[in-house]
């Protein structure tokens, strides 16, 4: 179990190699077991088939030899000359030398072709009168014709008798052998036996045929009485076949019937010896399979290692990223999955680094804004108390208009200084705008008529602080700075988007200036950090871009403002020197703040025509 867990927690490459190796080993193991099981039966069938072929070939040759004995016996049994000579001898009639020579020559002719056979003709009283061999050279005393014919197995009446007996045609010095003989009696019409014909062959001739196939099968001839007639081992001749077969284990038995009634050719096949060659082939095949498997596994391991190298490299890259090394890149490219993954990882790291830089820039700007805010908050409570005391004094003295203006100034300053809440209801933002308009109209000779159309379902929606007042301030400074006019402030809700519109009836911008301003806004709204470092910004104090000939570039940073908008600032000072810049937040910062809060869901649209005025519409996402 522990070993399995170690394998399971190893690398992907190791898991792939282990999985493929297990699948291969299981497949080959199952195939080997199935092949072994099927091969076992096939091997047995093959062994039996080969042994059967050998048995058939031997049976054919043995049958030919035995049939030759039968043929000679039948020929002599029907030969009239031989029968007449034997009858004459029985009757005491002299048979001449010529007739005897003719019979002997006939016997020689019959035994001339083929294997050596021994033919002898006997009288009824047991005397051999004709033969194709010299009788004085052999131990004819071993052939007792009376004992042979009086045995229980001898059948008279001209029928064939197959007899196995010790050889009578050998010298005393030779080891004992056996002969196979075919004997039949010659009878008169009265049934009286007047002669015998015996055709014999050495059992060694049969044994030579049996030994020819002895390497794969042990053959023997078994008679009708289940006694062994011929066997490669002389010691088993005459023994019971059943006794021999029962003493052998692991032996396959086959048999073929022979031409002699009751005789059969038995074959004993030692299965282990016969299957040894096939087993050797099977072992060689298994060895080759194992060698091929090992080579295949080596190639497979090398191939998997090569294919998974990008994944291993990606793993190393991810580990370094986990150790806060974001500058590393995989460098893996390609059209496969690993190449796509490596390219995506590198692109993601690029975006992460850009986002980190963007966040650092935003945090730097936020810290700068907070510092400016702290610098602006110089004892605000003391200032508010003084303004409140002056307002009360004016009311007591009957200067109601001055008291109202002073109250608006106090409220505006309080709203400017008190930045504890990031978002306020739209109604409060509009009240701040109204205080600002009251103060600006007080110091201007030309009044601006303000029309507000706020949908009732929008006044309670929370919006970021100071997003409307800077836009109204821009309109006062540049669009309505000389001749006054009308200022429209509208809000409505459509498709879960809060729309706020500030439109003036001022001078407007030509197409070239409008495109320049729109380009700056588009640059700010890009989803990257370029806008944070862009030299152009639309501030409240340099909104001359929206109405004059030049695109002013100013931000809360005074240095940048002086470097990029001298011409616009000069125009502003000459045109409206008495209009205060309360918030110090330009259009660029408004858009930037909204984008930091709402992301890319912020929508900003500017429309302007020369002589007709400028309209700025801001869309903020709103959820119920």
From TrEMBL:
Record-annotated HAMP domain positions: 305-357
Statement: the UniProt record of this protein carries the keyword Kinase: yes
A molecular-function term among this protein's GO annotations: phosphorelay sensor kinase activity
Predominant location: membrane
Enzyme class: transferase
GO cellular component: plasma membrane
InterPro entries on file: Bact_2-comp_sensor_kinase, HAMP_dom, HATPase_C_sf, HATPase_dom, Sig_transdc_His_kin-like_C, Sig_transdc_His_kin_internal
Residue ranges crossing the lipid bilayer per the database entry: 287-305
Pfam families the UniProt entry points to: HAMP (PF00672), HATPase_c (PF02518), His_kinase (PF06580)
Region (Disordered): 554-578
Keywords: Cell membrane, Coiled coil, Kinase, Membrane, Phosphoprotein, Transferase, Transmembrane, Transmembrane helix, Two-component regulatory system
Keyword Transport among UniProt keywords: no
Segments forming a coiled coil: 345-379
Ranges annotated as biased composition (Polar residues): 555-578
Catalytic activity: ATP + protein L-histidine = ADP + protein N-phospho-L-histidine
Subcellular location per the Swiss-Prot or TrEMBL entry: Cell membrane
Membrane topology: Multi-pass membrane protein
EC number of the protein: 2.7.13.3
Protein name: histidine kinase
Taxon lineage: Bacteria, Bacillati, Bacillota, Bacilli, Bacillales
